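User: Here's a chain of 80 residues. Predict its fold as tokens.
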Amino acid sequence: MVVVGDRWFGRVDPVLGERAVRLARAVAVELLGVHFTRADAAGLLITAELMPELSDPAVVDAVADLLLTGRRVRTPEVAA
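Assistant: Prediction complete.
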């Protein structure tokens, strides 16, 4: 699955999609490929990559939109 900004793309349970978006925010990146052990809510994170495959036209469109709008992920606040 792929996270672009605050959106996720892929055939996974919405719980995993939201987790992937939170991971991208936590590391302050706009584009992140994320792999889980399985697609249901019990899936565990296997890997994350900064250069995911961009073969899905919806992902390509989202990346183009992100580049054209210049949106940025806010750096997460760190509790003292």
